[in-house]
């Protein structure tokens, strides 16, 4: 294309021959980084270290500062009975925890999967030229702009078993024979949560993908037309590979978000073990059940799982955060 | 190898008509250049031939077959774009082979042979495994040409292929395109440019376009020696033709006369025009002298050799015998 490979803003230094200018640049760069590092340390690093510390103590809400170190007891402890049977306890053998992990992973996989497909379709439509495109682009962001609490409440009413518009419409259309308690019933609660989440975050996905699509020069599609490549093949062989870097970044953003899902589930399906996620469970233990140390252990494990998945994803997907490949 | 007929082709974008009825025949194996100032519709006309835009009205035939409704690939054309338009995620080999691998009926071996043959013609064989971003502009454009050759087209289209290259590379690539035309003498080529030097050096015939209308079609020498209008006279040739009108043209019995810079001579006395040298440029092999003789623009005289005239010097000018182009008030030639 017309733009050649971008030259990096800071030239590569060779060996020890660092010029005065280069030293100045590095120094300036460090000073610019300091405020961000301090902010990160205060709002992210310190709380994270605190919860990791609490997860190794017997802390409770009433007695945070008098907490004592108890080792890995919150994660796993065992007692051997006189009969010789060993009983394991702790987070790693807690079935409620693993149920929450499974719920979270299932939720993240299905909702991010659907959002990726729908987001791609919406982005492809928005990438086409048509009248009123600017308006549609702005309008599509509305679900994303509504605070989750509000949209969860709104959907809660729409999905209500007695008065909800969705039951009413489906009854009239003959799709269901009796009203369904979408959010309360264990069979449908997860579906309801996923539907609302997809509705809410598809626009975000669509805009990230759209940004990637707009990086693709139009002329190569003309070249493909001349090469006799069908529109369908153009999508799979040209669009998808070229939008992949943007798509991978969008997916990782969404996975990180989905793995921490809390507000939507807390409002839409409170206390349903079929949708309870890691965050919901951790909060319950931290504040409702006064198991502060145990909740901290769950938070820590949640952090480790997300961190592990992210690293795995970046490594497997060879995501390039440095920008496009072009 | 195809004979192209354009019959009263028109193209409108909304209410704006860009191509206003073009009729033209491009013979089989011919190298036709569309040239004209920017906005004259030359690129649009090429895109109509390619099938990248729909023809609003008129008929386009390849070897007698109407192709208006055919997709680009069905027309059997190949096109080289100004921006190269290479697939950035594919290697040079994949770029060149892409069209063929998706077509049915080509074996891997056949594709490889065709790609390699094209690569050899353009000396890009050593780059086959590289990505476009690892190549220079000139190499990329050679790959784009190679991709077009691999398609083995009936008609080869070039849309300002040299515009993104620097001056030295432009000349080198121009020569390669000329050689390519020699070695593919069966293939009809249409080449769009705004640069009259490319038009003159490459074309079998040139089609000069202006505001969506054909001004003149002819061989480079026809256009140079017998322009059909003041527009063509001014557009073809460098430096631009000098036009003198009114009193300055009286001697030649015409409202306006045109004389090319290379056909103007400086005389010690009794010239047709007299004026003052206002500037002179030394190009080494020759020099351009700008003389103010009272016309709207200074007259440019091209003299062989280095600088011989100083600014402020009075000079007499006269045209070479038989090299005066006379034009009427409508800008048409009087012969």
TrEMBL record, chain A:
<protein>
    <submittedName>
        <fullName>Trehalose/maltose ABC transporter permease</fullName>
    </submittedName>
</protein>
<feature type="transmembrane region" description="Helical">
    <location>
        <begin position="107"/>
        <end position="126"/>
    </location>
</feature>
<keyword id="KW-0813">Transport</keyword>
<feature type="transmembrane region" description="Helical">
    <location>
        <begin position="28"/>
        <end position="49"/>
    </location>
</feature>
<keyword id="KW-0472">Membrane</keyword>
<feature type="transmembrane region" description="Helical">
    <location>
        <begin position="292"/>
        <end position="316"/>
    </location>
</feature>
<feature type="domain" description="ABC transmembrane type-1">
    <location>
        <begin position="101"/>
        <end position="313"/>
    </location>
</feature>
<dbReference type="InterPro" id="IPR035906">
    <property type="entry name" value="MetI-like_sf"/>
</dbReference>
<keyword id="KW-1003">Cell membrane</keyword>
<dbReference type="InterPro" id="IPR000515">
    <property type="entry name" value="MetI-like"/>
</dbReference>
<comment type="similarity">
    <text>Belongs to the binding-protein-dependent transport system permease family.</text>
</comment>
<keyword id="KW-1133">Transmembrane helix</keyword>
<keyword id="KW-0812">Transmembrane</keyword>
<feature type="transmembrane region" description="Helical">
    <location>
        <begin position="138"/>
        <end position="160"/>
    </location>
</feature>
<dbReference type="Pfam" id="PF00528">
    <property type="entry name" value="BPD_transp_1"/>
</dbReference>
UniProtKB/TrEMBL annotation, chain B:
<dbReference type="InterPro" id="IPR012340">
    <property type="entry name" value="NA-bd_OB-fold"/>
</dbReference>
<dbReference type="InterPro" id="IPR008995">
    <property type="entry name" value="Mo/tungstate-bd_C_term_dom"/>
</dbReference>
<dbReference type="InterPro" id="IPR003593">
    <property type="entry name" value="AAA+_ATPase"/>
</dbReference>
<dbReference type="InterPro" id="IPR003439">
    <property type="entry name" value="ABC_transporter-like_ATP-bd"/>
</dbReference>
<dbReference type="InterPro" id="IPR047641">
    <property type="entry name" value="ABC_transpr_MalK/UgpC-like"/>
</dbReference>
<keyword id="KW-0547">Nucleotide-binding</keyword>
<feature type="domain" description="ABC transporter">
    <location>
        <begin position="4"/>
        <end position="236"/>
    </location>
</feature>
<dbReference type="InterPro" id="IPR027417">
    <property type="entry name" value="P-loop_NTPase"/>
</dbReference>
<dbReference type="GO" id="GO:0005524">
    <property type="term" value="F:ATP binding"/>
</dbReference>
<dbReference type="Pfam" id="PF08402">
    <property type="entry name" value="TOBE_2"/>
</dbReference>
<dbReference type="InterPro" id="IPR017871">
    <property type="entry name" value="ABC_transporter-like_CS"/>
</dbReference>
<protein>
    <submittedName>
        <fullName>Sugar ABC transporter ATP-binding protein</fullName>
    </submittedName>
</protein>
<dbReference type="InterPro" id="IPR015855">
    <property type="entry name" value="ABC_transpr_MalK-like"/>
</dbReference>
<dbReference type="Pfam" id="PF00005">
    <property type="entry name" value="ABC_tran"/>
</dbReference>
<keyword id="KW-0067">ATP-binding</keyword>
<comment type="similarity">
    <text>Belongs to the ABC transporter superfamily.</text>
</comment>
<keyword id="KW-0813">Transport</keyword>
<dbReference type="InterPro" id="IPR013611">
    <property type="entry name" value="Transp-assoc_OB_typ2"/>
</dbReference>
């Amino acid at each position: 294309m017309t733009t050649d490979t971008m030259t990096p803003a800071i030239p590569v230094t060779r060996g020890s021959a660092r010029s005065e200018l280069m030293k100045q640049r590095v120094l300036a760069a460090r000073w610019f980084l300091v405020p961000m590092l301090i902010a990160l340390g205060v709002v992210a690093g310190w709380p994270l270290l605190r919860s990791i510390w609490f997860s190794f103590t017997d802390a409770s809400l009433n007695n945070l500062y008098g907490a004592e170190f108890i080792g890995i007891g919150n994660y796993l402890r065992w007692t051997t009975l006189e009969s010789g049977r060993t009983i394991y306890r702790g987070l790693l053998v807690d079935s409620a925890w693993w149920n929450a992990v499974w719920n979270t992973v299932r939720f993240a996989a299905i909702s991010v999967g659907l959002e990726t497909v729908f987001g791609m379709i919406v982005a492809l439509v928005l990438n086409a030229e048509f009248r009123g495109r600017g308006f549609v682009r702005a309008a599509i962001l509305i679900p994303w702009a509504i605070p989750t609490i509000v949209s969860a409440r709104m959907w809660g009413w729409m999905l209500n078993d007695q008065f909800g518009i969705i039951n009413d419409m489906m009854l009239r259309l003959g799709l269901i024979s009796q009203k369904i308690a979408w959010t309360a019933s264990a069979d449908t609660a997860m579906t309801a949560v996923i539907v609302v989440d997809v509705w809410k975050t598809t626009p975000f996905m669509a805009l990230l993908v759209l940004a990637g699509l707009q990086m693709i020069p139009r002329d190569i599609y003309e070249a493909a037309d001349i090469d006799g490549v069908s529109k369908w093949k153009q999508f799979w062989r040209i669009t998808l590979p070229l939008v992949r870097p943007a798509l991978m970044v969008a997916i990782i953003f969404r996975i990180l978000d989905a793995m921490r899902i809390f507000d939507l589930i807390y409002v839409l399906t409170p206390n349903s073990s079929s949708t309870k996620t890691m965050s919901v469970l951790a909060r319950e233990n931290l504040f409702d059940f006064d198991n502060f140390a145990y909740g901290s252990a769950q938070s820590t494990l949640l952090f480790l799982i997300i961190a592990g998945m992210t690293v795995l994803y970046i490594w497997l997907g060879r995501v390039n955060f440095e920008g496009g490949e072009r | 190898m195809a004979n192209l007929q354009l019959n009263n082709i028109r193209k409108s974008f909304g209410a704006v008509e860009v191509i206003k009825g073009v009729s033209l025949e491009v013979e089989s194996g011919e190298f036709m250049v569309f040239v004209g100032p920017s906005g004259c519709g030359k690129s649009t006309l090429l895109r109509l031939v390619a099938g990248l835009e729909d023809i609003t009205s008129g008929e386009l035939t390849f070897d007698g077959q109407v192709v208006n409704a055919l997709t680009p690939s069905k027309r059997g054309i190949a096109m080289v774009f100004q921006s190269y338009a290479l697939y950035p995620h594919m290697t040079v080999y994949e770029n060149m082979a892409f069209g063929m691998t998706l077509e049915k009926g080509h074996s891997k071996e056949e594709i490889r042979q065709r790609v390699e043959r094209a690569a050899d013609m353009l000396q890009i064989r050593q780059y086959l495994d590289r990505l476009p971003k690892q190549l220079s502009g000139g190499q990329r454009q050679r790959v784009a040409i190679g991709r077009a050759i691999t398609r083995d087209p009936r008609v080869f289209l070039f849309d300002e292929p040299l515009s993104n290259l620097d001056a030295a590379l432009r000349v080198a690539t121009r020569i390669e395109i000329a050689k390519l035309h020699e070695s593919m003498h069966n293939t009809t080529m249409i080449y769009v440019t705004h640069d009259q030097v490319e038009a003159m050096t490459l074309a079998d015939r040139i089609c000069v376009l202006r505001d969506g209308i054909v001004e003149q079609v002819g061989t480079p020498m026809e256009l140079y020696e017998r322009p059909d209008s003041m527009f063509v006279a001014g557009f073809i040739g460098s430096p631009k033709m000098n036009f003198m009108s009114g009193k300055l043209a009286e001697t030649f019995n015409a409202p306006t006369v045109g004389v090319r810079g290379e056909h103007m001579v400086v005389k010690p006395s009794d010239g047709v025009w007299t004026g003052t040298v206002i500037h002179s440029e030394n190009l080494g092999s020759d020099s351009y002298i700008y003389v103010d003789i009272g016309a709207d623009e200074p007259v440019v005289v091209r003299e062989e050799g280095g600088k011989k005239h100083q600014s402020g010097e009075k000079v007499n000018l006269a045209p070479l015998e038989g090299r005066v182009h006379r034009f009427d008030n409508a800008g048409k030639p009087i012969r």
